[in-house]
Amino acid sequence: MNQGQVTRYPVTDRVREALAVSRRGAQELLPEEEWAQKLARSEALKVPLRIKLGLDPTAPDIHVGHTVVLNKMRQLQDLGHQVIFLIGDFTSMIGDPSGRNTTRPPLTAEQIRLNAETYYKQASLVLDPARTEIRYNSEWSDPLGARGMIQLAARYTVARMMERDDFNKRFREGQSISVHEFLYPLMQGYDSVALKSDLELGGTDQKFNLLMGRHLQQEYGQEPQCILTMPLLEGLDGVEKMSKSKNNYIGINEDPNTMFAKVLSISDDLMWRWYPLLSFRTEAEVAALRAEIEGGRNPKDAKVLLAREITARFHSASAADAAEQDFVNRSRGGVPDDIPEVQLGGAPLGIAALLKQAGLAPSSSEANRLVDGGGVRIDSATVSDKGLKLQPGTYVVQVGKRKFARVTLTA
Questions:
Q1: Taking 70 as the threshold, does the pLDDT of residue 3 lie above it?
Q2: CATH of span 256-331
Q3: At what angle do helices 179-195 and 138-153 cross, to 10 degrees?
Q4: Looking at residue 89, what is its pLDDT?
Q5: pLDDT at 335 over 90
Q6: 12, 70, 102, 185: least surrounded by Cβ within 10 Å?
Q7: pTM for the complete prediction?
Q8: Nearest CA to 138 among 211, 215, 86?
């Protein structure tokens, strides 16, 4: 707190409840005592706290791993606080070096604009748009100018900057570090000054940048923000961080059936790591559910509840119902009601060519590999012969667990 500020506010049951909501699933809450006092003051004076989350629109799509911090924002929003969804249109042009061993290529202004257009729309599936303040950091970063940038840079030392793990590692390994990369944490910290934030959220990889916000707020005579870091969500494999490049992700724009089935595919251990980060059920509800599973209830029941909740959040309750029924049908070997209809000619047609032309395999070689692996069915019968040729007719073709097509083949 600011020097000279001695007023202490009572930590009531409501404050303790808000503190528990803040801590749930979090990696770190720093400094916790300061946050408790901010919550207590907010309750006593009936003044909402300002809670900031900054995201650089580096890609147009969000997966559920990105929603971990958004979920926490929504929980704090539901406690009555003011959340600020900050789009880093200025900082995107620098490129965040966090966790990287090479300089991140900056985005063009047009790329940033296009990505930002879809970012908030997707985030609004988690946040309450009516109670969310949307800001762009170009509002205060552009007017800063060269003089202001130099004055800002004077408030931090190179030695402190080099304490950052990724900078230090790159320096020791002889990897290049561009001067403009030092500006990124400074500009992210300055966002907290401009917004007068009380709390900033981020992933564990953002801790240095979040602490920069505290430092700069003190430099500018403001009460420093607290910081709350959330774990990086493990992907479907339960090993690597969720990432499109690792193909272990669930996109929030994916269709309900795929989303539901992907959640059902995770391990039981991973399910319990996902619950505190992705579910809005209370800690007591999750603890009771876990006790039931440990008492003999099928773990799949808990997984279905999580799959339904996530699917309903990004689609609807009715879509979650339909996705569950679709999953049940498929697990029993049934065919979904709504599958693509494909018209093909050239019968008799080889199975590999049919799979490729029907869009069920990217290439003939991949189609042959799928047949070898027992992953192809025609009218519920597994295909084992790569030399199979199909005569004119209509066939239900299945690849793996989730790809179907009703193929009508003509001569």
A1: no
A2: 1.10.240.10
A3: 120
A4: 87
A5: no
A6: 102
A7: 0.75
A8: 86
Residue 308: per-residue pLDDT: 97
Q: Is the dihedral of CA 147, 153, 158, 161 positive or negative?
A: negative
Tokens 């001569």 belong to residue:
411
pLDDT, tens digit (0-9, with 9 covering 90-100), for 52-104: 999 887 766 789 998 999 999 999 999 999 999 999 888 887 766 655 555 55
Q: From 374, 411, 373, select the one nearest 390 (Cα to Cα).
A: 411
Closest CA to 382 of 336, 337, 341, 351: 351
Res 243: pLDDT:
85
Does a cis peptide bond (omega within 30 degrees of 0) precede residue 48?
A: no
| CA max distance for the chain | 88
Domain positions in the chain: 13-230, 256-331, 341-409
* Residue 196 assigned ligand-binding role: no
Residue type, 89: D
**In 122-141, which positions are buried (b, 16+ CB within 10 angstroms) versus exposed (e)?**
bbeebbeeeebeebbbbebb
Q: How far apart are CA 409 and CA 411, in angstroms?
A: 7
- On whether the 341-409 domain is CATH 3.30.365.10, my answer is no
Amino acid found at 275: Y
Omega into 97 within 30° of 0, i.e. cis? Answer: no
All residues at 6 or more sequence positions from 262 whose CB lies less than 8 Å from its CB, including other chains: 236, 250, 254
Instruction: For domain 13-230, give the fold.
Output: Rossmann fold (3.40.50)
Cis amide bond preceding 392, omega within 30: no
Q: Which residues pair with 133 in a beta bridge?
A: 84
Q: What is the mean pLDDT of residues 8-18?
A: 95
